[in-house]
Design goal:
alpha+beta; Jelly Rolls; Arc Repressor Mutant, subunit A; 3 domains; three-stranded antiparallel β-sheet; 11 helices; globular
Length: about 300
């Protein structure tokens, strides 16, 4: 279960629905227990977008539309354009308002303070030190690209992302926000490996649970580390990201079952943690240059 997950639709999106915004997609990641679910909507920004406070952050990326201007401050030249990002902080409410001359297509990524606290824990910082300040219409370095990739993966139905991937991407976005939008910078952890038998415990957990979704926090718990610290340490020890490592083990198990059994490919996909036979086929071809059916025939 996602420690930072939303039990229901984020309050900010629920308010948008009441205001009549066209929600282009249902929120993705709530049912899957992602730490940062997303939504996409088209709305005419103006007086109606004056929100009461919500208890979570809202990271917005403008996809298409006219220039959006922030209007809740007496004097400001802040403006959002396609590809820029903005952040509304918990409780900001009506202090964060924007207007545009025509409907704007944009996406929201929702996350809690607890996600930022966990990233800080991985750097030995006290909880609560990672509160962010709001901002509007920033090109902001690598952040728009990270958010765009997150959204692309979130809405990918051909090769749906797993929990480890989306957890990892959410942690990277959180780290980038902490580095850029608070007074104290975040220092990288010094440790780069997994000591003792921790890697063996992680490997054993993965092998026992290949048939089901696995979270980054599950692997970190087996290693006795925070998720962010674990992801960095794991790569330092193995040369692979946790996502790549788990995917390799799933594919190797699937290949073994294809060679040794006559189980239907759909059952093998389920037994190795893939969302569907098509998902297994996509990943198998990408890794081995051949489809599961052709592999079995040969």
């Amino acid at each position: 279960m996602g420690v930072h997950a939303f039990d229901e639709e984020p309050a900010h999106l629920a308010l948008y629905r009441r205001l009549g915004a066209t929600v282009a997609t249902s929120p993705v990641g709530v049912a899957e227990r992602w730490n940062a679910p997303v939504s996409r909507q088209v709305a005419r920004l103006g007086e109606a977008t004056d929100f009461p406070g919500v208890d979570h952050y809202v990271l917005t990326i403008q996809i298409a539309g006219p220039v959006v201007r922030r209007v809740d401050r007496p004097v400001t030249d802040e403006a959002g354009r396609d590809g820029t990002v903005s952040l509304q902080v918990p409780g900001s409410g009506g202090r964060f308002r924007a207007e545009a001359a025509a409907p704007v297509d944009y996406a929201h990524l929702y996350f809690r303070q607890s996600l930022l606290d966990e990233v800080d824990d991985g750097h030995g910082r006290r909880r609560g030190a990672g509160r962010l300040a709001d901002f509007f219409g920033r090109p902001d370095g690598e952040l728009p690209g990270q958010v765009t990739t997150y959204l692309t993966r979130a809405f990918d139905t051909t090769d749906p992302p797993g929990l480890i991937e989306m957890d990892s991407r959410a942690y990277l976005i959180a780290l980038d926000l902490l580095r850029r939008h608070r007074a104290a910078p975040v220092a990288d952890p010094e440790r780069t490996g997994l000591p003792g038998g921790r890697l063996a415990r992680v490997h054993g957990l993965i092998m026992d649970r290949l048939h089901e979704p696995i979270r980054l926090s599950d692997l970190a718990g087996a290693a006795g580390l925070t998720p962010y610290h674990f992801a960095r340490s794991f790569r330092g020890e193995t040369g692979e990201t946790p996502l790549a490592y788990v995917m390799r083990l799933r594919l190797e198990r699937a290949r073994d079952l294809l060679a040794r059994t006559r189980l239907p490919i759909a059952e093998i996909a389920a037994a190795t943690g893939f969302a569907s036979q098509a998902h297994l086929t996509t990943r198998f071809r990408r890794a081995f240059g051949i489809t599961p059916a052709r592999f079995r025939e040969g």
